[in-house]
TrEMBL record:
Organism this protein belongs to: Patella caerulea
Cross-referenced InterPro entries: Hepadnavirus_pol/RT
Top-level taxon: Eukaryota
Full protein name: Uncharacterized protein
């Protein structure tokens, strides 16, 4: 650490002492506690309690401002697989192309599908202690796994997959095409 600070000093790079932490196994970064000894990311309990309250409020509303979803996105950074339950929110937010900061105060309609995702979040939060483990698994390529998939937007075609020498194929059901591009939510 001393060598680094000496180099910064010699180059004239200012270092804020109040924001500098020496070698440690536990560090709070952007509001999340990262514990490299136990390989955990911890979301503060007060943020989880606030998220629970906010989601309970949102689920009974008809409309919500985009900025009210911020805490859910913050927590999602630390929760593995949480993006699956934000997908519909991302789809709606993608409709807003503006870089104008005022856009965060735009309102969106809280649809039945969004409410279903919020209910999944609330169910999860009932038993979540705020601790997520950092996976030490190495990522494997689809070539290594022999896993390949493809789907067609054409309702006469469908989806196909190849896994370790085995094939899977089926046609889209008519009701799947009615859901738009999120048809995967309707696969039985």
């Amino acid at each position: 650490m001393k060598a680094f600070t000496d180099v910064c000093e010699s180059l004239g790079v200012p270092i804020a002492d109040d924001k500098t932490v020496g070698p440690t196994n536990q560090l709070t970064f952007l509001g999340l506690t990262i514990d490299t000894k136990n390989m955990q990311i911890k979301i503060p309990i007060d943020k989880l309690a606030r998220l629970n309250r906010e989601l309970k409020d949102i689920v009974i509303k008809r409309r919500v401002r985009l900025h009210e979803l911020g805490l859910m996105y913050f927590c999602a950074k630390a929760i593995p697989c949480s993006r699956a339950f934000l997908r519909r929110f991302y789809d709606i937010i993608a409709l807003f192309k503006s870089k104008d900061p005022k856009y965060f105060y735009c309102t969106i309609r809280v649809t039945r599908n969004l409410k279903e995702d919020i209910i999944v979040w609330l169910t999860f939060l009932d038993s979540f202690n705020g601790v997520c483990y950092i996976s030490d698994q190495r990522w494997l390529s689809n070539t290594y796994l022999q896993l390949f998939t493809d789907s067609s937007g054409n309702s006469d075609l469908g989806i196909g997959a190849y896994v370790c020498g085995h094939w899977l194929q089926f046609r889209w059901q008519k009701k799947m095409g009615q859901s738009g591009h999120n048809a995967g939510y309707d696969i039985p």
